[in-house]
Design goal:
2 domains; four-stranded antiparallel beta sheet; NADH Oxidase; 4 strands; alpha+beta; 359 residues; globular
């Protein structure tokens, strides 16, 4: 019985994954040791930002793609923008965004009206602008529009209400988190390099002749991106490799945390889910601006959903969003039947946990 179990479990694929993991761990441990031996350690990279190299890495890699701080070599920013917006313009934008946020709700019924393709394209363009760690963009989205596919997709949902939404909605956006996003590493590095060159070229054109821009110092952050993604995200190929690498990272970080601050490592699925949900929220907010209703759902059978959409094992689905024109009347932030929320003083604190915020 034990021999039969071993023959079933120890397959050539798993042996190859184990060998790959061992070699990968040796390389990572060696790289980590060499990096810690340098004057710039993980403490500086993650927290202090005291050196130009650490600042360059954090601004170009560690921060989300659209929330990066200026490079250490960029010219000082002007204290006053050339054309500061008027207070009325600012308030108008604030009111518009606030109305979009408050008008978003969980739509229960949809009209049998198709969503134009150009609207869907704009929604996905906005979702692509959502930030992601290391700019890895670890997600894909499947827009299910055919009625026959939606019928089969509805069969994978839990509960009659969820199934009804999938059948009625003209579009179902299935957001899939990529658990092996490191496959895209060469393309991501090329994108970051191209973005950096564009920024440098733009700053060169904006630099004043009286204060010429200094040439940026050479940085090895591009070469370090694969190492840091594997270290913090763990988005490697193969579920066994990802799990064992998580355990190894957990032990290594627990030891090094005695000497310097370090993040708590998470599973690749957790990291990919966090980044995917940023894109989901962006998608739903712009859909609300278009007058569309959305119904995010997490109650479904993942195994059956994979079969229907022919989804590879490297992807996991955190959320399915039914999208379409709502059958009921639109709402606004003055709508009297908005769903209730907890009191703000129970969710928002000042400086420390459970210290009430004075409002």
């Amino acid at each position: 019985m034990h021999q039969y179990f071993l023959r079933m479990c120890i397959t050539p694929a798993i042996i190859v994954q184990l060998l790959y993991l061992i070699s990968f761990c040796l390389c990572c441990i060696g790289s980590l040791g060499a990096f810690l031996a340098r004057p710039i350690g993980l403490t500086n990279v993650l927290t202090s930002r005291r050196s130009a190299r650490a600042a360059t890495f954090l601004s170009d890699v560690q921060s989300p793609a659209d929330a990066r701080s200026p490079s250490a070599h960029s010219p000082p920013a002007s204290p006053v923008p050339p054309n500061p917006p008027q207070q009325s313009e600012v308030q108008e934008r604030v009111d518009t965004v606030r109305d979009v946020i408050f008008s978003r709700r969980n739509c229960r019924t949809f009209l049998p009206k198709e969503v134009p393709l150009e609207v869907l394209t704009d929604l996905m363009t906005a979702a692509q602008r959502a930030p992601s760690g290391f700019n890895m963009q670890p997600w894909v989205c499947i827009l299910v529009r055919e009625a026959s596919v939606r019928e089969r997709l509805a069969a994978t949902m839990l509960g009659e209400k969820n199934r009804s939404k999938i059948k009625e909605a003209p579009v179902v956006a299935v957001f899939c988190a990529d658990l092996e996003s490191q496959r895209q590493m060469p393309r991501i590095v090329a994108l970051i390099k191209k973005d950096r060159e564009r920024r440098l070229a733009y700053r060169a054109t904006q630099a004043s002749s009286k204060s010429p821009q200094k040439p940026p110092a050479k940085s090895k952050s591009l070469q370090r991106i694969p190492f840091y993604v594997s270290l913090f995200a763990g988005a490697l190929r193969g579920w066994l490799i990802r799990y064992l690498w998580f355990l190894i990272r957990y032990v290594i970080f627990a030891v090094l945390r005695v000497f310097q601050p370090l993040p708590v490592p998470s599973m690749a699925e957790t990291w990919a889910y966090k980044n995917t949900m940023l894109a989901v929220q962006t998608y739903m907010l712009l859909a609300s601006a278009y007058g569309l209703g959305t119904a995010p759902m997490e109650g479904f059978d993942m195994v059956r959903l994979r079969r229907v959409l022919m989804l590879p094992d490297r992807f996991s689905v955190p959320l399915v969003v039914a999208t379409g024109y709502p059958a009921d009347a639109p709402i606004s932030r003055t709508y009297p039947l908005l769903s209730g929320r907890l009191p703000m003083d129970e969710q928002v604190f000042s400086d420390f946990y459970d210290r009430r915020l004075a409002i």
